């Protein structure tokens, strides 16, 4: 079985305290868009702008990211070990925000 490298960002996003916070924020954002038509058009314009800027930034950064991949892997491994330590020391990270 090939070893799948852990990604510290994915791990952080999967922590119940983080994922429940993100879900709450997403619900509030969606609710605000639905109840305020003017806000909905502003939000949609912003979302389109962010998507376009994000795609452009990734295209421009690709050569740099490829060159720095070994350093990213080392930083990711260190961050994963740090997250292991935090999860061990702070059990509350394993609970949703409401708990």
UniProtKB/TrEMBL annotation:
GO biological process: lipid metabolic process
InterPro entries hit by this protein: Perilipin, PLIN1
UniProt keyword S-adenosyl-L-methionine, yes or no: no
Subcellular location: Lipid droplet
Stored Pfam families: Perilipin
UniProt keyword Lyase present: no
Transmembrane segments: none
Keywords linked to the UniProt accession: Lipid droplet
GO cellular component annotations of the record: lipid droplet
PANTHER family in the cross-refs: PERILIPIN-1 (PTHR47138:SF1)
Family: Belongs to the perilipin family.
Record-given protein name: PLIN1 protein
């Amino acid at each position: 079985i090939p070893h799948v490298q852990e990604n510290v960002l994915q791990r952080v996003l999967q922590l119940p305290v983080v994922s429940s916070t993100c879900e709450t924020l997403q619900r509030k954002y969606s609710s605000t868009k639905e109840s305020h038509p003017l806000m909905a058009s502003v939000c949609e314009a912003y979302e389109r702008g962010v998507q376009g800027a994000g795609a452009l930034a990734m295209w421009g950064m690709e050569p740099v990211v490829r060159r720095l991949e070994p350093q990213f892997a080392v930083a990711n491994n260190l961050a994963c070990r740090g997250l292991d330590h935090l999860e061990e020391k702070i059990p509350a990270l394993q609970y949703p925000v409401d708990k």
